[in-house]
Amino acid sequence: MSERVEREYELKRTGAAEAMAGVKSGDRIFYGEFTLFPRLCDAALAAQKDGVTGVNVDSVCFTQMPKVAEVDPDGNHFILNDWHFGGVSRKLHKQGRCNYIPLTYHQGPRIMRKYQDYDIVVLTTGPMDERGYFNYGISNSMASAAVDKARRVVVEVNPNVPNCLGGNQESIHITRVDAVVEGRTDTLVQVPAANASDIDRSIAAHIMEVIEDGSCLQLGIGALPNVIGSMLADSDLKDLGVHTEMLVDSCVDLYECGKITGARKVIDKYKMAYTFAMGTQKLYDFLHNNPTCASYPVHYINDPKIVALNPKVVAVNNAVAIDLYSQVCSESAGTRQVSGTGGQLDFIFGAFGSKGGKGIIGISSTYTDSKGEVHSRINPTLAPGSIVTLPRSLVQYVATEYGMVQLKGKSTVERAQALISIAHPDFRDELANQAAAMGIG
């Protein structure tokens, strides 16, 4: 390590309280993304509660309850905003204490650079390397864009953050950092995949029928992507590739058993390209200094034009509901925000542009509410207030446990008929009658 880099590091090393000092009412602060939550600086900001009002605290998916929320139950001092909703944000939103910032994920960095200004950006990183760089670890995403729009940049160092190789824009140099906070020793938040149900396995079996040798995969987290990964591991398929928004544990399993080689990719050949990772310690250990994996900002990974460059892209995304016009809602239950747009539109659009590509919405045909009543997820129209995440013009494949249908090129009548054919049998007659009444039956 050069003497200049060491000297600059020592000059900028400080405590969390000092790093967050000087926050004023009305300031806007960015807390980083996903599991890389800045615990020390969050606690330091919370301690300043009584001296400020109207401080906006933004993140891309809070994965733990911020101290600034715990100390301010009435929301008089801090306003929380999330670019992608998870469980923490849903809870706070229900209490009127967290707002959603809508975006199509690949546009996030551009939106940030054009329209946001941050007084402080706090990023959790790995330790500085001998060249003076702090690695963004498992959350590249929008980090560089936030830094570009920051008046002050603070890095909170955690030695347990894996060093994730680029790609590009995967790190920040000490010369662009204003304060370095040490003292973290905690392990990263782990997000194991949910257990798969028989319904998940049935949906996955239908999706498996269109995955072929050389397919380039985008799989998210959850039971359905996890069971698809298990089925791929047990299959005869070979030379699979990965170009995905989120890297998950199932990708590690597929690589270890030889299914993923990336040999047939056109861009980032032989690499698993991603913008953030979320899973268990197995995934984080796999990523550390692994040249098989390439971390990129989301404006590259999720750009539909980039996605489309690899052949045979298979993008699998889930949904909350779909109507007979084939409009897909993936982020709200009526007016209640439950998730974010994320990269669903990006990858469904990009997969269709890929030679041999397939964009798939996987959805269970029904759900059971808190009263034990069963409802269809395929309905004549979406519930009032539901957000259309994917317009009907972009929908390609829809899969339930009862089959998979391809909707491109089909009329509104044909789409309705196709969707009814994969609805739960108990609801098909009613859906057919309602489709007829709507003029699409």
Q: The biggest beta sheet, please?
A: 8 strands, parallel
Q: Strand percentage, roughly?
A: 15-25%
CATH topology of the largest domain: Glutaconate Coenzyme A-transferase
Number of helices: 16
Q: Terminal Cα separation, in Å?
A: 71 Å
Radius of gyration: 23 Å
* Order of neighbouring strands in the sheet with most strands: 1-10-8-6-2-3-4-5
Structural class: alpha/beta
Total count of strands? 25
Domain count: the total is 2
Quick summary of this structure?
By secondary structure, the chain is an alpha/beta fold.
Give a written overview of the molecule.
The protein has 441 residues and is α/β, with parallel strands linked by helices. It folds into two domains: 3-181, Glutaconate Coenzyme A-transferase (3-Layer(aba) Sandwich), CATH 3.40.1080.10; 198-437, Glutaconate Coenzyme A-transferase. It has 16 helices and 25 strands. Strands 1-10-8-6-2-3-4-5 form an eight-stranded parallel β-sheet. Strands 14-13-12-11-15-20-24-25 form an eight-stranded mixed β-sheet, sandwiched between helices. α5 (87-94) links the parallel β4 and β5 (98-100). α15 (412-421) packs antiparallel against α16. The protein is globular, with a radius of gyration of 23 Å. 50% of the residues are buried. The model has no long low-confidence stretch (mean pLDDT 97). Residues 279-435 form the Acetyl-CoA hydrolase/transferase C-terminal domain. Keywords: Cytoplasm, Fatty acid metabolism, Hydrolase, Lipid metabolism, Transferase. Coenzyme A-transferase that converts butyrate to butyryl-CoA. Its main location: cytoplasm. One of its GO terms (cellular component) is cytoplasm.
